[in-house]
Specification:
125 residues; alpha/beta; Transcription Regulator spoIIAA; 5-stranded mixed beta sheet; 26% strand; globular
Length: 125
């Protein structure tokens, strides 16, 4: 199973790490577990680490559907993505996060965990 989901009590962030060639079902399972932890801990900060993700088997429809479904279940949650390193995966993740943002999700993409964590912990203005 190429994902893990944890809640960090020290900063109140739910962290998701997805790596390798995770299947669509694994992406949805990770999402469900992350939002369960968000609800359980009354958490509005989600850090999604995709830097080791490969999307070579993803489809445009799959990326669109995932971004759209995420937007439907994430009201009020801020999502920071750590971008993958290969160009195809970057393109796919950017497309998915654009779908999320276009549907009202507070989301932003970063190259490092430090940048993502800083953005999540920043007070809303």
């Amino acid at each position: 199973m190429p994902y893990e989901v944890i809640y960090n009590e020290s900063d109140g962030i739910v962290g998701v790490r997805v790596w390798g060639e995770a299947t669509e079902n694994e992406h949805y399972a990770a999402r469900e577990e992350a939002f369960r932890l968000c609800r359980e801990h009354d958490c509005i900060r989600l850090l999604v680490d995709l830097h080791e993700l490969s999307t070579k088997h993803s489809t445009v429809n799959g990326c669109f559907s995932f971004g759209e479904s995420l937007a439907k279940i994430s009201p009020g949650i801020r999502i920071a993505h750590i971008m993958p390193t290969d160009s195809l995966s970057i393109k796919d993740v950017r497309f998915t996060t654009t779908v999320e943002a276009n549907r009202g999700v507070q989301t932003c993409s970063f190259n490092t965990a430090e940048e993502a964590r800083t953005w999540l912990l920043k007070r809303e203005e």
